[in-house]
Amino acid sequence: MESQSQLSLTLYPVRIVLAILLYIIITISSLLIYNELIRSVLLIYGATLFSQAFYINWYYRVKELAGPIAISQIISSTINLILVILIMAKYTDPIIAIILITAKEILNALLLFILFKNSGRMIHFDFNLSFANDVFKKSQPLVITAILILINANVDQFLLGVLTKTKEVGLYSAAYKITFLLLLPASVILQAAFPQISKQKTLIQEDDIITDFFNLMYYAGTIVTLICFLFSQEIILLVYGANYINSIELLSLLSFSIIIIYASKMYSCQLLALDEQKYFMLAILIGALFNVILNIIFIPQYLAKGAVIATLISEFIILLLTIYFYRKVFHSIRIKKIVLLLFLIATIVLLSELFIIEFIIKIILLIVSILVLTKLFPLKLFFSSSNEHNSNK
Question: Quick one: which of 119, 268, 273, 280 could link to 197 by a disulfide (CB 3.0–4.6 Å)?
């Protein structure tokens, strides 16, 4: 019982065995790859399989405790960013970048595990074959989706290493890691929103919880996108130094993937909450296929910028498919505010392209954007509105 600080984690042995088997497959597959860089990347990043096997975030999701997950993510991401600033400013080796990414994933899982243990809970590695088999069958769409997301997130760097020089991988990786870090607020919001959304049998568009969730994701995604776009030069020079000046343009372009991914997460979260994960899996599958094809087409001609173009197009395809499936399931979608949001971002981009904008003007544009967003997407505190909603039921 939970009061006795005990928890029987039936699936832990299965997760560990699967991680070992998958890593063996990766190791064997790497022997067939002649490119030493790609082989090293596979072997190093493959170690995240073990961190995922021990990642205990699902327990906190069931218990509706978003705090520990957010704490572990924030701490691990902050430490990773500090290491990036200290190390990547001096070294351009992409292997070091992969090591830092892998270390961040392992640290995140380790921190959450420590928080779990420090709360007085205990883990017993019991194994129930029939239960494990039942869960495995039901979780296949989620497992496939997770694998597809992993492929989609890393195929661009992989193909850059195959089709171009090491320098292009480093330039792209520098910009990509910044955008990846800026997706953290979306993960925190989703951790808090998912338990509340999953409690509902249907998604009512006028529901306070859904409205607050939409507004918060729109709000956070737009602000983060504008910060990344407007201050891409300052961010790259601060984090990586002058050696990565060619990453500035890549980051400014990649910044638009942030709002696209925020929107995708917003709709996919609701599909997953109501057990419609097959649609999200299909969207990711099609997007990943487009990503591979577009990278192969664009990278030889446009190098790292080609990988950026492929990423933007494939993420936009995933968003369109997710919206399509969302409308298919729930028969409605909020399009008016999306148009207003795109108009705001397009206006900022147009102003920045037509005029040489000084730092202070960027600050003013950002403040004005925040004020406009506050009007478009009025924010109630999500947690308080959720509690009020539940108490009224």
Answer: 273
